[in-house]
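Repro case for the chain-ordering regression, as requested:
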Amino acid sequence: MMELLELFGEHPGWYFVAATLVPLLSFVLILLASAMWCALRPFRGTPVCDALFNLFGGEERGRTPAYVATGAIALAFVLSLIGFIRFTAQQSQFETQIEQSQRTLHDLRTRAAAAQGKDKDELQEQIEAEEKKLENKEKMWESARSYAWQGHFDWLRIRPAGLSDPDRGTALQLGFKIDSLSALMFVMVTFVASLIHLFSIGYMSEELQPEVEDHQVHTRYGHLVRRGRFGRFFMFLSLFCFSMLNLVLADNLFQVFLSWELVGICSYLLIGFYFERQSASNAANKAFIVNRIGDAGFILGLLILWTNLGTFHFDEIFHRLRAPLTDSHGGLQLAGRFVRGDLDPAGAADGRQSLKYSPNGAQVVLFPLPQDRAEHYHGVGPDRDDRVDVFDSPKKDQHGAMPYWLLVAAGLGIFLGCVGKSAQFPLHVWLPDAMEGPTPVSALIHAATMVAAGVYLVGRCYPLFAYEALLVIAYTGGITLFVAATIAIVMTDIKKVLAYSTVSQLGYMMLALGVGGWVAGLFHLLTHAFFKALLFLCSGSVIYGCHHEQDMLKMGGLYPKMKITALTMLIGVLAIAGIPLFTGWYSKDAILAQALGFVYVHPQHLFLFLLPLGTAGITAFYMSRLWLMTFTGKPRDEHVYEQAHEAPWTMTVPLIVLAVCSVCIAWGWPVYDAEASWLEHNVHHAQHHAVLADFGNIDYTVSKDHGEYWVVAKKAEENERLYAYYNHHLAGNLALGLVLIGIVFAGLIYWKRILDPAEAVEQFPGLHAFLMDKWRFDWLYSVVVVRPALVVGSWLAWFDLRVIDGIIHGVAYLSVLLSKWDGLFDNSIIDGLVNLVGNATYAAGARLRNVQTGFLRSYVVFLVVAAVGIFMVLAYFVRMAAAG
Amino acid sequence: MALTDVLFYLLAAMTGICALAVVVTQNIVRAAAWLLFTLAGVSGLFFLLGADFVGATQLLVYVGGTLVLVVFGVMLTAQSPFVNMRISAAEWGIALAVGLVLYGVLAASFLISNPKGVGDAQLGREEMADSILLGQALLGQWQASPQGTMSGLPADIHLRNRLAVSYLLPFEIVSVHLLVVLIGAAYLARAKRRRLAGPASLPVDGTDVSPPVDGQEQPLGAQT
Amino acid sequence: MNLAVGLHHFLLLGALLFVCGAVCMATKRNAIGILMGVELVLNAATINFVAFARYNPIFQVEGQIFALFVIVLAAAEAAIALAIVLNFYNNHLTVDVDTAEELKG
Amino acid sequence: MDLVLAIVEALLLVTFVAGSAVFFIWLERKVAGRIQDRLGPTRVGGRFGWLQTIADGIKLLVKEDLIPADADPMLFRLGPYIAFCGAFTAYLALPFANGWVAKPLSIAIFFMLAVMSTEVFGIILAGYGSGSKWALFGGMREAAQMVSYEVPMALCVLVPVIVAGSMDLNYISNLQAGGIWNWYVFHDPFTFLAFWTYFTCATAQCKRAPFDLAEAESELVAGFHTEYSGLRWSFFFMAEYGAMFAVSGIAVLLFLGGWSTGLPFVPELSSTFATWLGSAEEPSWLGWVIGNVINVVVFIVKGWLLVFVQMWVRWTLPRLRIDQVMMTCLKYLLPISCVLLLGVSVWQLAVSPWVEPYFRYALCGVCLALFAWMAWKVWTTRSRLPVTVTGATNLWNRGPIPPELVQKS
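-- result from build under test --
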């Protein structure tokens, strides 16, 4: 215990490790308890077993699992909050010093301007001193910007056979890297997850009863009746949280992949929670299989990286791929970017090849590790000598080269994995079906854990995405957000609408990441988590209140019935729509601004701005449609309306808390300033300098003696970031106009009911049908993938049954024959021998039995006779010895 | 033919004859009596040999203790003193034959190996270790380790650890062992309920050997 | 063989006692009789010890001490044996060792 | 020559044992008569009733020896002899005076205990061989009692042996020569207690009252010698009285200074006389003999006193029950004797060097004072011994006696 505390003291990163492990602990606890319960159940009756059985919950296991899981995740939240506070405190001390010295410098200058004479000289001296101090502060600022807690240990070490010493060989590591991004993710995930747990206690309460009747499953004897699965649900939730936290915690791709798969299986288990329902099990399978497709790409990327770089560790990968910031002569022109070149066949010597720098070369230079000693390093690039010797199979501390297309492929592969997880355009089909799971699960998947994982991973791996890969990401996001939004317009299932809104919001994030809005995308990820969780929980509350009625066509006018739900959901709607001063506003405008800047610099990608801009309006439209259809107007279904009621406090309290968060979680000072968001500022700390290198036009020509590099706008019209910075309000206002239009439309149609949606449907029946069929993706996949797969599968099955099984059966038949002969041999000869020995022994024993009379005196006689015999024999030998 | 020789022959005759009587008699109590004379004769031989302490111990332990114990055993377990526990003449024959062979072997072994006997030591020469010497040997104050090679020990063993050899520890061990044995015996033979209900069959001489009630006749069981 | 008493005479007497004890063990069916036989054998050993102590100065201490040990251990043995006999009697209502044949093969 | 000497010694001892037995029988009668107001012994048998004992002897000699029908004749005959031999052999190692002992043994006391322990066997054989259940019971009881009382007795004997550092009785009693405070009974508290414990055990060992369960007439007719008569019967009593004197002699030798007169500043007599009549260079054997004769007298008187005490106890105290006898031995005397043994060892090792010899003086003084006080009381009360009409005596009565209770004689 004390060691653990000291560990916390000396390395605050362990806060987050602990926060990760706590849900796992609760998972294990609940699992063991349930296992004991099941093991003891048959043996009820004996007092001991009864006592234990009741200890583990008895006949009707209460809410204990829920309390355990909720307590665990709440504890994780507290831990990560403490860790986050300590982290930010350690980080921001640099900046406070900088700002304060800047302030002093400023007023010194003003006073210097005012003053004259000798005190002016004094002031000048002071100014110089302050400037010199500020230079060092700039260094500190840089170090603060890339500040991180890390640590790792070798989990299993792969070394060539016969290589015994533990240091060589490559190791799969488990570790943690805490920068401000992951710290924020921790707080967000644990917080939202805690609220969702709390919500679930109420929502899943009917699973508490020993017998639950599932109205959606029809058996021959009526509805299915099964035992409640309260504990199982919370067990899965805990595992889910653990996997997500572990993913956020990871400092290497391998660990990420592990938790990646864990998240996948958890989503499978939770989506298929009501696995008796055909639809639920189908949805679970669908989610799982679609994710497998993505993971195939992920594994591909991992393999490429492993073979070329020999490491999974994020920082090592980035150091290897991106050019170092400085070398012994100061800043580099290509600092932080990929350095490409061509191998020229000449100059090959002792396992090296000479690589010549060219802007579009087919190879990428791999830079040596470590890079902490920039003095001894001589950079590559136009401003340095443009040749470097690379090794064929480079060690980590040597120069190397890998083909550029492989790098792109690796990036695309990893992105494919993210596409699967985050339900991006080609693979988005599983997410709406995932609504089959319980609503809290949907909330968890959509807000905090699963879909966030993809975006988070893209953000994490940003430095290894080549330009083409980033473009693919951006377009994928653009297409996704548009497609999903259009589908969401026509959906009438309240949860489906939210699902598609999630998809489109994720598209926003992807797009932002693709166009260099690293901060914007992850910022949106965080804010979206809050209001999307809020929206889902609200929908869950509505569904709960309407007795599992999800169709909005049967709702309406529910506002007086459930005020809290309605108001909180309204807040969520406004937030996602991007009304100013709500969280969505800050993040979405940042994305739009970044897209605008990108499009300005690269006009050929105009759609990358138009799609999100238009979709902003569509989003506002369908979200307000959702809210208005649900809560306003006169009820469409009297029955549902009569039954409707407000949810218990365990469900409303999370709503209120989340509503507050989704209003003011992103506020900064001044509040109305979109650029001054506290959250964005924090995320910005974690930004890798590669982002600046790709989109920021970092100027490194400042000489070394001036200190380190910093960011300046060289040519504003070529700098997406600066353009975005200057035109933030332009993009924001455009979006706001569209948003207002969308909201007004929705109000006219669904609240005032001046316009009738049916007319629109009649006017564009094809479009409507097309949208209702979700752009016919499922049909497309079934035609292109599923059916061919089935046909091929049938062939393979035939081959399997006939040929493979035939061979196996033949072999089996032969072996049976052999063993029969062998058995004969065994029975006759081997056993014959054994029995012979046994019988002989038995017969001998039967003979010798007569000696054992059981009469003491006969034993004595034997004894004496034996003694005499031995004595005589001895005497004989002694005589022989004496005789010589 | 000194007096001691005469005494030896007397005692030896008494011992041997009484031992034979122990073998041949069929009444167990008489056997005990014969055994008493045997043991007494043996102790007399010890006194004759000058081993006073051993002789006295023999008397105290054997005659006063063991033999009384044996007789108590007889009394406590007697269905009837004259119950027939004879064995067949064949077994008698076998036992006697084997015994004679054994005796022949034993006698022959040392008569043949050393016809004249070890030296010509006569009784009466005062070279027997008296009790004081014995005690000193027990305490290791007097050298008590074999000197010669007769016991197979190297000849110079007494030069090095002459005073080291002490029989105190074995003596203690034996005494503790004796205590343990007594406790164990008392536990084993503690008064238990007879398995057979009802009084035992009355012996012909009217000796009532029904199970002891207050333990007055059960020195082993009742007194510890 | 001279009439002057020497080591032989004691050894012969010890042998006689030993044989008597052996035969006693071999011919008695009474458990206590067998115990007496054991005592005889032990006495034979004791006689030999003391005789050696007397006639072989090398053993003038050991002989007596071993004799003492033999006597004490004989007492212990008798106590245990009698306890066993009593138990045997409690269980079989007899001391005829021939009835103790539950384990006879 | 030594054969003749051995025979002479044996004869002397036999005569002493037999004679003392006769004397003890007479004494027993007188004591019983005195204590229990038995009028017979105070009247019959001529002067001091000495003829009575002679008559008894003649009667026993001429009486017929009965052997019951279902007795085991051999064992029946063997019993008395074994018992008598046990008691008699003990005298072989019993020194009557300095150096006057039949067989000087360095382990005399051990030898005596050993041979006296064989007496049990005679009694067992007698009890069994008689073929009578009373005899059998008596024998069994007797055997159990004697076997168990041997243990604390031997332990108590070990106490002075530890003090003296030898088992040679002669040596031990010589150590106690000089003043009475040199007697081992006063040596230290443990020897003091050991004396009383030993005496109790000895009383029980030679089956005297109140431990005479063997011949508890009220329960079993006469114990192991129910069936005996005549000479064999008298052998038992010779054994008993012999044992009485033997244990008393042991007590005297171990605790009460043996043949030392107890007068202060008088060293061991025989050597004194020898050097007095002769010189230190060649002491005269005449003086030796004279001194030793006095020693013998002193020793025997002491022994007789103890025997008298045994009789006194017998005719004073009621008889115990057999389980009480066993309990007394095994629950009280045995632990006490063990404690005494340990205590005396500790005393010899740790305490004795500090308190010697003052403790002896103190204890001796206290005991003598006590004794004197008791003697004074007895003497003063004996002068007007009240004899009530019921014949019960009341030794410790105070105050004037009502005259009508005084028996005129």
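Ordering looks correct now. Residues 188 and 221 of chain B are 8 Å apart (CA to CA).
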